Amino acid sequence: MVQTVVNPKQIIAARVAKEMRDGDVVNLGIGLPTMVPNYLPDNVNVILQSENGYVGLGPLDGDIDPDLVNAGGQPSGILPGGAFFDSVFSFELIRGGHVDVTVLGGLEADTKGNLANWMVPGKMVPGMGGAMDLVTGAKKVIVAMEHTAKNGSSKILDECRLPLTGKGVVDLIVTELAVFRVTEEGLVLEELQEGVNLETVKEKTEAPFKISPTLLFD
Amino acid sequence: MNKIISLDEAASFFKDGMSIMAGGFMGVGTPEDLVSALLEANVKDITLIANDTAFIGSGVGPLIVNHRVKKVIASHIGTNPETGRQMIAGEMEVELVPQGTLAERVRAGGAGLGGILTPTGVGTVVEEGKEKLTVDGREYLLEKPLRAEVALLKAYKADKSGNLVYHRSARNFNPFMALAADQVIVQVEKLVEVGEIDPDEVMTPGILVDKIYVQRRQ
């Protein structure tokens, strides 16, 4: 059942869900991206890949199995038809272009399709985990993040300032305000989220962007 | 040849300054009893190769907390705050490697390869100090093989010749680490007679396994 949308993260997850096609193999990053399946319509079934070694990731079903966790280390389930494999194979799937879509959170994204989401020098250095492989290998890379940082500054920049996760890898940026496509000529504003006007997006976006001729808004 | 050993016998393999790789993803698929034996052996200055440094109290985490590690090579350290603290304080060296690259480097180490070429990390800090090669117009980083003196693995089941079967997502780095160390010691939950595992179901052939420790707890 499709969940109702009330807060920014839910707005983002619901919009990302519209990018999924029936049968897509999808890898979801930790946090916000894991909310996306809650918004998939009944006729769209995706196969979730978990970087720690399986396809068919599903919700926890019954008792916790300590040997079955998702990429965030949380107890999980595996759906009928799923399959386990080792980490070499898991990243062959990821790097080799066998994952259709990956959805990741972001600290910064920019006009050239660069993404920074793995470290803040001197503050937070958790490591890149599988993120660098995912952005390099997945056929479509969607950044799902809130439009601005906690201090109100734009997370969509002319050029990322933090160390990159990937260079020129992002296809689509989805925030609670807007949807941007990354093109050879820079960012194109494709959509405004419901109730958001263009002025707000211009004001809250540091990066320059073009406006799609097909822009859908009231 | 008898491969079955006690924890005390396992401990006799550990030496100061040794390189050790351990299977596991956030502790799932890590041989906790062998890690405990390593702790009790009181060796220091270990070079540890593992996907992540798990948690303060589980997986390989306690090795970090108890200052047994001189250098760690991992893809993610964020779930064990002690790793980051020791890194920033200069008490321990940390080499962060993208997860897919780490897996392939270990695979290369066990496969007799001089390294692997990966597009992951191109245009990021990961490329610093590495040879870059262009193949058919695409840039790749030369990532060198990784081996260790001892591999500590976890499997669900072994027969007495060391044929292994893994369970659920606890497989992760274990199968290919079995090829990349001089001594391969595996902790199993269940030991069966030779012939009781169908050869079609063997995930790691026993020729790669030197020693088997059968865990007591269930």
In the CATH hierarchy, what is the class of chain B? Alpha Beta
Shape of chain A: globular
In the CATH classification, which architecture of chain B applies?
A: 3-Layer(aba) Sandwich
Q: What is the share of helical residues of chain A?
A: 10-25%
Helical/strand content category of chain B: alpha/beta
Q: What kind of assembly state do the chains in view correspond to?
A: heterodimer
Which chain pair shows the most residues in contact? A-B, 40 and 44 residues
Estimate what percentage of residues of chain A fall within beta strands: 25-35%
- Report the order of strands and helices of chain B: HEHEHEHEHEEEEEHEE
- The CATH homologous superfamily of chain A is called Glutaconate Coenzyme A-transferase
- Enumerate how many helices of chain B there are, as a single number: 6
User: β content of chain B, as a range?
Assistant: 25-35%
Strand order of the largest sheet of chain A: 4-3-2-1-5-8-10-11-12-13
Q: How far do the termini of chain A sit from each other?
A: 28 Å
Keywords:
heterodimer, A: alpha/beta, Glutaconate Coenzyme A-transferase, ten-stranded mixed beta sheet, three-stranded mixed beta sheet, 4 helices, B: 218 residues, alpha/beta, three-stranded antiparallel beta sheet, 6 helices, 28% strand
Commentary on this structure:
The complex is a heterodimer of chains A (218) and B (218). Chain A has a single domain, classed as Glutaconate Coenzyme A-transferase, CATH 3.40.1080. The mean pLDDT of chain A is 95. By secondary structure, chain A is an alpha/beta fold. Chain A has four helices and 13 strands. In chain A, the strands form two sheets. Chain A has a ten-stranded mixed sheet with strand order 4-3-2-1-5-8-10-11-12-13. Chain A is 15% helix and 28% strand. Chain B has helices spanning 7-11, 32-40, 61-65, 81-88, 99-111, 174-177; strands spanning 19-22, 46-49, 69-74, 93-96, 116-118, 132-135, 138-143, 148-159, 164-165, 181-192, 211-214. The model of chain B has no long low-confidence stretch (mean pLDDT 97). Chain B contains six helices and eleven strands. Chain B starts with 6 loop residues before the first helix and ends with a strand. In chain B, helix 2 links the parallel strand 1 (19-22) and strand 2. Classes of the chains: A alpha/beta (218), B alpha/beta (218). At the A-B interface, helix 2 and helix 3 of A face helix 5 and helix 6 of B.
